[in-house]
Amino acid sequence: MKKFVALAMAAAMAMSMVACSNTSTTTPNNNTNTNTETKAPEKTDGEDKADVEIDASSFAELAPVELKGADSAGVGSAGQLLGEAIAKNVEEITGGKMTVTYFPNSEMGGDNDIQQGMIDGLLDYIVLQTAPSVSFVPEAAVFDLPMVFAKYDGDKIDEALNSEDSEFHKTISEKYADHNYKLLGYLQNATYRLTTSNVKLDTLAAFKDLKIRTMENKNHMAFWTALGANPTPLAWPEVYISLQNGTIAAQENAADTCASANFQEVQKYLNFTNHILYLNQVVMNNEKFDSLDPAYQQALLEAVQKSIDEVRPELEKLDKDSKDKLAAGGMEMVEYDDSFYDEVLNLDGVKELYADIDTAVDGLGTILQNELAK
User: Are residues 71 and 150 in the same domain?
Assistant: First the structure.
């Protein structure tokens, strides 16, 4: 089973807040982990080393492997649930030959800290949202396309993101690998980042001059600017008090984050803007993955997929329960129909942002939109 222990390396990594709130500016580097456990045979052209059948006997002659995993998520959030499920499932699949020491809830630092730790070999796999990966994998900015998923259900989105037959999945996996990231999978179920506010955002005009706290992400900020709002990056620990004293009038996050932060105490409205998909990714140092025996590679991939399948149904419940808590605390729910999303997507500033992002990610935005539209 997964183990929760504190290693000495914990002191070497700065602590920060949850993935949806990290504002660390750690500079990525190109250092990679070259340590190996069991050296896998060289793959031939067209062969995926992980594409092998495994059973309990596959690990009998292999040396035990211990991985270190981490997330930067909040207590009880989707990121934590996913990361811990992987730890449990990989041990079960391998009969205990591969185990995971897991560090949840930012024990190993914030988004940038755990990514740098993965690159440096201090961590093996990590779970976090996609926005903080843009400074490490620029092509991850494709997920900054505002409202690109807003009209699709979880199954359709999952097919586009995780299916081996998806052109988008194939292409973005290659982009990750270019930066020494091994993409193991995405977790979502058509739940989104929403906007809390102290003014009702029931029309586009209501967004004008709205001082809203956002992550320090240029694409996110450009989106709010296109709506006429005034995006304001702010450290996560300062958000609650700033909402309370009126320094800012709004913030955006997934419903579970809003609920765990008790924003119902300082905000009047929960607006279902659905502007960014609530998406967690599981990534690993690509060279470390390649160093594993093919049986361990396949076990890890199976554990990730099994964990995604287990946690996905919980996301809808987590989202609903969080919204119910916020409503019970006095927040009014503001919902929109498709015409609102169409109106936003037709804004000149949003169209320009789409074009800019698509250019920056080498056409991945177009590939994603085509995949979703199939």
Answer: yes
Distance CA 215, CA 290 (A): 33
In a shared domain, residues 270 and 292: no
Beta bridge partners of 252: 195
| Residue-wise burial string across 73-99, b where 16 or more C-beta atoms lie within 10 A, e elsewhere | bbeebbbbbbbbbbbbbbbebbeebbb
Q: Which two tokens stand for residue 108?
A: 């190993």
pLDDT of residue 42: 42
Nearby residues of 113 by Cβ (< 8 Å), 6 or more positions away: 13, 14, 15, 16, 24, 26, 72
Residues of the chain with pLDDT under 50: 1-51
Cα–Cα distance measured from residue 86 to residue 79, given in angstroms and rounded to the nearest whole number: 11
- pLDDT for 35-84, tens place per residue? 333 333 344 333 444 445 677 678 989 999 999 999 998 788 889 999 99
Q: Are 179 and 141 in contact, with CB atoms under 8 Å apart? A: no
Q: Which domain holds residue 285?
A: 8-23+59-189+279-317
The pTM for the full model equals 0.80
105: nearest Cα among 132, 119, 91, 84: 84
**Is residue 84 assigned to a domain?**
yes
Cα(315)–Cα(308) distance, integer angstroms: 10
Shared domain check, 246 and 345: yes
pLDDT in tens, 260-317: 899 999 999 999 999 999 999 999 999 999 999 999 999 999 999 999 999 999 999 9
Strand 192-197 relative to strand 269-277, pairing: antiparallel
Looking at the fold, whether 148 and 267 belong to one and the same domain comes out as no
H or E element at residue 373: helix 364-373
